[in-house]
């Protein structure tokens, strides 16, 4: 302010060269001398706060970011092996002795599965695994013993005997006949390989026909089912996508290779299901809407009186249909399955031992007109259902597990009655001129 007063004093400078006498300078003095009251300041603040809040709310938005708690690392594409698979394969090949390879069957099967997952480019960058001759036990031809061979196996000093995979005392063969033995295999045991438990120079494995089929004929089928079961259990435990799980892909590759070796006759004879068919079956389960529908019906029937039970056949069929669609977990968390009584036993003449609820039946409702509205059609369907109920509902007595006699009233479904057709539309009469 002092500086402004100094400029505003009577100096000899030309007025046109100095802006001190302009009206804007006077306004500045007025503003500097003005004092805003505290009440006005608080009032303005209260007015501004809602405006600021509305502005922030109007221009703000919410964005939901889903964080993956199970990040997938080292993922391979659907038609190639992952880097970790490639490293595992290369390490296996590098450790093999080219002249005298010692091959572990399980490891070799895993390596073959990884090779099958490789792309053409990846296969060209590695050495192919060594081929080994797979012994297909399913092609085994049964070899039946002679009477002389069968009798010789009873000698406990010479032979150690197994029947259907279980070690058996030689004297147990007296309970069998030579015809009971469908197949056998035997080998000589050298002295340095004998043990105190099995000191005999010969070991023989005997098979009945049933066990021969399980051990030999169905060997490939059993191997496939075991690997498929392990794969399906692993998919249930896995928290990530099946297609992105390297271990699951290796397991799937193994079972796919076994499935390719099956003949059409084997698939039909042993009812072998492909992995994709199993996945489709495992995906079938009741929806939340269906579970809610089941629970509603189950509560209704479970809460009925123990002395009198009214059963709609349509409801009973629907309850069983929904219950069969549920998984084991869904059944455990759902309402208990209603204990529907069995149908009435037949009488001596073979007819159903039951009594009609209504002995006097009114005539069926008249059909709706040809141009009936939706409301009229629904009313007619309801009337037909009621007619069906009074016409075919029957009752009988049932003794439950507690020895109590329960009156059962059964209301049949409306599927058996075909409503009479509506009358044909009448054509408008035309007058002849």
Describe the model.
The N and C termini lie far apart (114 Å). It is built from 16 helices and 8 strands. The strands form 2 sheets. Strands 2-1-4-3 form a 4-stranded mixed sheet. Strands 5-8-7-6 form a 4-stranded mixed sheet. With 433 residues, the chain is an alpha/beta fold.
Topology overview:
Layout: H1 2-8, H2 23-33, H3 38-58, H4 83-95, H5 105-117, H6 120-124, H7 147-152, E1 159-163, E2 166-168, E3 183-188, E4 202-207, H8 209-217, H9 219-237, H10 246-260, H11 264-269, H12 275-283, H13 288-302, E5 308-312, H14 313-325, H15 328-333, E6 355-356, H16 374-392, E7 394-399, E8 405-411
Parallel strand pairs: 1-4, 5-8
Antiparallel strand pairs: 1-2, 3-4, 6-7, 7-8
What is this entry, summarized?
With about 425 residues, the chain is an alpha/beta fold.
Q: Main β-sheet, in a few words?
A: 4 strands, mixed
**Morphology:** flat
Would you count the extended β strands for me?
A: 8
Indicate the percent of residues in helices: 40-55%
Strand content: 5-15%
Q: Uncertain segments of ≥5 residues (pLDDT<50)?
A: 65-76, 239-244, 415-425
Strand order of the largest sheet: 2-1-4-3
Radius of gyration from CA coordinates: 45 Å
Mean pLDDT value: 77
Q: Ends: how far apart? A: 114 Å
The DSSP helix count reads 16
Alpha-beta content class: alpha/beta
Features:
alpha/beta, 433 residues, four-stranded mixed beta sheet
């Amino acid at each position: 302010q002092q500086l402004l007063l100094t400029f505003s004093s009577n100096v000899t400078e030309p007025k046109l060269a100095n802006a001190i006498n302009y009206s804007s300078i006077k306004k500045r003095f007025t503003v500097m001398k003005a004092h805003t009251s505290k009440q006005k300041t608080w009032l303005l603040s209260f007015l501004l706060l809602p405006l600021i809040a509305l502005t922030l709310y109007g221009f703000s938005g919410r964005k939901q970011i889903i964080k993956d708690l199970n990040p997938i690392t080292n993922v391979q594409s659907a038609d190639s092996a992952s880097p970790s698979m490639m490293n595992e394969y290369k390490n296996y090949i590098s450790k093999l002795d080219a002249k005298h390879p010692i091959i572990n069957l399980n490891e070799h099967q895993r390596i073959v599965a990884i090779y099958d997952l490789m792309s053409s480019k990846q296969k060209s960058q590695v050495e192919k695994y060594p081929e080994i001759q797979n012994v297909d036990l399913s092609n085994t031809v049964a070899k039946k013993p002679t009477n002389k061979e069968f009798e010789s196996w009873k000698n406990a000093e010479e032979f150690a005997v197994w029947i259907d995979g279980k070690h058996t005392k030689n004297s147990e063969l007296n309970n069998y006949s030579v015809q009971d033995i469908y197949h056998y295999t035997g080998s000589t045991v050298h002295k340095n390989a004998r043990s105190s438990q099995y000191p005999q120079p010969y070991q023989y494995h005997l098979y009945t026909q049933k066990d021969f089929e399980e051990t030999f004929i169905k060997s490939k089928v059993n191997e496939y089912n075991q690997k498929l079961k392990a794969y399906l259990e692993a998919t249930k435990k896995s928290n990530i996508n099946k297609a992105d799980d390297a271990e699951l892909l290796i397991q799937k590759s193994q079972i796919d290779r076994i499935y390719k070796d099956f003949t059409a006759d084997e698939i039909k004879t042993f009812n072998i299901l492909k992995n994709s068919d199993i996945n489709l079956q495992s995906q079938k389960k009741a929806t939340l809407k269906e579970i809610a529908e089941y629970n509603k019906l189950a509560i209704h029937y479970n809460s009925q009186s123990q002395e009198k039970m009214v059963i709609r056949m349509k409801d009973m069929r629907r309850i069983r249909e929904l219950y069969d669609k549920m998984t084991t977990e869904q059944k455990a968390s759902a309402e208990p399955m209603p204990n529907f009584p069995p149908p009435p036993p037949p009488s001596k003449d073979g007819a159903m031992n039951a009594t009609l609820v209504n002995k006097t039946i009114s005539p069926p409702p008249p059909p709706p007109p040809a141009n009936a509205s939706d409301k009229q059609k629904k009313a007619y369907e309801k009337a037909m259902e009621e007619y069906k109920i009074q016409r075919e509902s029957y009752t009988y007595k049932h003794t439950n597990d507690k020895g109590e006699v329960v009156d059962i009233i059964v209301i049949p479904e409306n599927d058996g009655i075909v409503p009479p057709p509506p009358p044909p539309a009448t054509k408008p009469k035309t007058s002849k001129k």
